């Protein structure tokens, strides 16, 4: 009897243990299930976040690419039929913004399907605006349409020597020097900085570097006032020169008043004006676009060519003789689009090619083209291929992508080299642009500027 009671008790205990274990297992399962649901929720949130970010990124990239396919400014030749093929799934609404008394385009009356080719013909006495919209409703971009006269330019492609004098003294940098007492000084530190232009010293214009240095040395250590140009701002700052170990008063400023170089003339127009380089003249140390006081073009002779190769751009070495009989003309503008000025008779004689009509950016096609440049003594046409056209590129000097395909030019230079900037680009018997840059990684490839951008200055 006691044995049966003991067995029953053990059975009860075992059943209780089984129930406790089952309860514990169930509790563990529920805890694990909660953790799994929590992790799954986190994973879902992370996945949704990634998908949203990816969608936003793709959307932003698509928006950016679509935005850049549409130029901010579109130039149309007057009284000529022009075909525009932007190939974007958008619509445009044409509005006349000048000469509206004579306009037959009321606002909102002319809508254009930009996914198809559009042929336009416009009068030169009006300006227009195209309001680009998504689904014909949502504003997307405004395009200014400028009507220009047909123009012919003479492509040149000849090397030129360039001398420009800065408008003031360009501050290259500031630095310490040893004073008469053996201590290091830099009076101009925190007063001027790289890229500033010194226009005046104590109220008197500075003419050149030597003049400035001489006047500082003669100041006898008194505080001087410098009028500087910093960006678009004109500032008056003060500094006190200190004697160096040679007993000469100094400010500790590195300055430059001119720049020289070799480039290529792009074109000469009917009035004897020239355009060259396709990009501005920047200071070699500060990369600042030089503010021009005046400049001169000189005849130059290419005496050596360093062949370009991948990772190492080549260059032309020219010999410039700075003498009056070698002058080709005056430079009156240095901007991001190039250098521009007026030719004399010697320069006009360099324009031996037939004048060509300009080609606007929407007329440029991917495919064969030519550049005109001088690498062996005389200007010559060489074959290239237009690989891409960026109608609204952020960098005005890189609207055209091209690749040198001419075996002779590749053998002579390796492709595009320094000094070739400004070489005119011709396609379909139209002057469409000028060479501006070379790809460091591939000397056969480079960039060009649209000719209409060079004429814009």
Helix and strand arrangement:
Elements: H1 2-69, E1 73-77, E2 82-84, E3 91-96, E4 110-113, E5 118-120, E6 128-134, E7 138-148, E8 152-155, E9 159-174, E10 177-178, E11 184-185, E12 197-201, E13 204-205, H2 209-217, E14 224-230, E15 233-239, E16 242-243, E17 249-250, E18 253-268, E19 273-276, E20 292-298, E21 300-306, E22 315-320, E23 327-335, E24 338-343, H3 345-348, E25 356-357, E26 367-374, E27 379-389, E28 400-404, H4 407-413, E29 424-427, E30 430-439, E31 442-450, H5 451-455
Parallel strand pairs: 1-7
Antiparallel strand pairs: 2-5, 3-4, 3-6, 6-7, 8-18, 8-25, 9-12, 9-18, 9-20, 10-11, 12-13, 12-14, 14-15, 16-17, 18-19, 19-24, 20-23, 21-22, 23-24, 26-27, 26-29, 27-28, 28-31, 29-30, 30-31
Structural description of this entry:
- With 457 residues, the protein is an alpha+beta fold.
- Helices cover 20% and strands 42% of the residues.
- A six-stranded antiparallel β-barrel has the order 9-18-19-24-23-20.
- A hairpin with a 2-residue loop joins β23 (327-335) and β24.
- The mean pLDDT is 86.
Low-confidence stretches: none
Question: How would the global form be characterised?
Answer: extended
Which percent range describes the beta-strand content? Answer: 35-45%
- The structure class reads alpha+beta
CA-atom Rg in angstroms: 35 Å
Query: Helical stretch count?
Result: 5
Largest sheet composition: 6 strands, antiparallel, barrel
Terminal residue distance: 118 Å
Biggest sheet, strands in spatial order? 9-18-19-24-23-20
């Amino acid at each position: 009897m006691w044995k049966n009671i003991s067995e029953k008790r053990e059975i009860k205990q075992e059943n209780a243990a089984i129930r406790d274990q089952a309860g514990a297992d169930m509790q563990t399962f529920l805890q694990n299930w909660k953790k799994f649901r929590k992790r799954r929720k986190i994973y879902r949130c992370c996945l949704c976040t990634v998908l949203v970010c990816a969608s936003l990124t793709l959307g932003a990239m698509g928006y950016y690419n679509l935005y850049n396919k549409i130029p901010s400014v579109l130039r149309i030749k007057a009284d000529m039929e022009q075909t525009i093929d932007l190939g974007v799934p958008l619509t445009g609404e044409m509005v006349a913004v000048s000469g509206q008394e004579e306009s037959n385009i009321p606002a909102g009356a002319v809508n254009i399907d930009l996914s198809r080719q559009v042929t336009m013909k416009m009068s030169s006495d009006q300006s227009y605006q195209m309001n680009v919209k998504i689904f014909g409703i949502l504003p997307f971009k405004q395009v200014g349409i400028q009507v220009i006269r047909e123009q012919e330019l003479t492509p040149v492609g000849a090397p030129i020597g360039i001398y420009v004098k800065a408008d003031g003294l360009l501050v290259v940098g500031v630095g310490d020097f040893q004073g008469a007492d053996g201590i290091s000084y830099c009076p101009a530190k925190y007063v001027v900085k790289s890229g500033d232009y010194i226009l005046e010293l104590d109220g008197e214009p500075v003419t050149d570097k030597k003049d400035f240095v001489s006047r500082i040395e003669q100041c006898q250590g008194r505080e001087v006032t410098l009028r500087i140009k910093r960006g678009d701002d004109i500032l008056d700052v003060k500094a006190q020169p200190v004697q160096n170990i040679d007993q000469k008063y100094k400010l500790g400023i590195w300055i430059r008043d001119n720049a020289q170089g070799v480039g290529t003339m792009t074109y000469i127009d009917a009035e004897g004006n020239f355009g060259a380089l396709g990009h501005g003249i920047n200071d070699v140390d500060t990369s600042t676009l030089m503010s021009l006081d005046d400049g001169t073009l000189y005849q130059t002779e290419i005496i050596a060519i360093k062949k370009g190769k991948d990772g190492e751009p080549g260059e032309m070495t020219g010999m410039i003789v700075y003498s009056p009989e070698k002058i080709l003309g005056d430079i009156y503008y240095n901007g991001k689009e190039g250098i521009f000025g007026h030719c004399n008779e010697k320069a006009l004689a360099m324009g031996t090619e037939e004048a060509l009509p300009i080609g606007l950016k929407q007329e440029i096609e991917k495919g064969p083209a030519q550049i005109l440049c001088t690498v062996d003594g005389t200007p010559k046409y060489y074959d290239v291929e237009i690989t891409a056209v960026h109608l609204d590129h952020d960098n005005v000097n890189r609207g055209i992508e091209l690749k040198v395909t001419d075996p002779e030019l590749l053998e002579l230079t390796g492709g595009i080299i320094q000094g070739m900037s400004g070489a005119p680009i011709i396609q379909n018997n139209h002057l469409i642009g000028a060479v501006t840059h070379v790809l460091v990684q591939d000397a056969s490839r480079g960039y060009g500027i649209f000719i209409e951008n060079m004429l814009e200055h």
